[in-house]
Amino acid sequence: MAAVTTPATLRPLSSLRRRQTGMSLVELMVAIAIGLFLMAGITALISQQSSARAELDKSSRQIESGRYAFTLLQDDIEHAGYYGRFGGTMTASGVLPNPCSVATASVGDALALPLQGYDAPTSVPAPLSDCLPDANHVPGTDILVTRRLETGDALASPATGVAGQIYVQTTPADKKIGIGPDPTPATPSTYTLVQKDATTPAPLWRYVQSIYFISPCNRYAAGAIVCTSAADGGKPVPTLKRLELTASGGAPAFVITPLVDGIQNMQLDYGVDAIGAGTPAVPFITAPALADWPNVMALQISLLARNADASAGYSDTKTYSMGSAGSVGPFSDSYKRHVYTGTVRVINPSSRRE
């Protein structure tokens, strides 16, 4: 009987078991350590990228807020003193106008001052405090009042006005101020001016008065009407706000509007025309006298914007130049900041002088 031969490629089972003994404990621990090391590196990288992206987002928001706040002020300052067709001269009264008054006589006197400001008051002065509570203003920041007529389409008829809204009817030589709609059946019309044909009523424009200021918060706490420590979810965010004269319930009223959050400080320097030719004086001044306000022809704006959220591990040790008002800081907190500055011409008054 022939012998059975075993192929050379076949090995006994005991031999295969000896070659497939698996990993030793030391090898397993080394593999786990390498894996953990790689995972830690990937985690750190993702964390760093996330933090960098968060800081980039904060900076982008701050830049956008600063530029937008400056643009809002620039637009209103450039339109200040626009009074429709009126091209005559106006004489300022012997006292600063009351920005909170909605009486038509007060509005008529105030038109002589397209701009009016308050230089870094520690508390809101009277009579401005009648419509701007002290708790809604950051002490040491400037307040600006602008006056003009709406630049859109004029009203062709007084009867089409909004109840309680103040309107100004103008011709090149005269103006009439009243509260729409007008006339009523029992009262003769306030708006008696006519165009060159001596028949067609002169157009009317809505009177626009805005008061810009820095508020300690953006959104009030529930049930509150002023800024408190509970505003903005317990972390008040300084905000550029505006009080705007409008109509409510059929009567003139001021409405407060948050404009840009993260604006912490506003300082204004005024260029006063000293030679009567529409050229601002140099240097700019921070607090014009009563006689200077009709001659303000330019403003230098300094806005300090800060991030809405703190940056972990950061301490603000910088100082920030705010024009003639000097520097502010360091704040020694975790918020990053930047100053936005620029000069704006008051186009309508300066153009008339040119």
Automatic annotation (TrEMBL):
PROSITE patterns: PROKAR_NTER_METHYL. This is Pilus assembly protein PilW. It comes from the Bacteria. The lineage of its organism: Bacteria, Pseudomonadati, Pseudomonadota, Betaproteobacteria, Burkholderiales. The chain crosses the membrane at residues 25-46. Keywords: Membrane, Transmembrane, Transmembrane helix. Pfam families: N_methyl, PilW. It comes from Cupriavidus laharis.
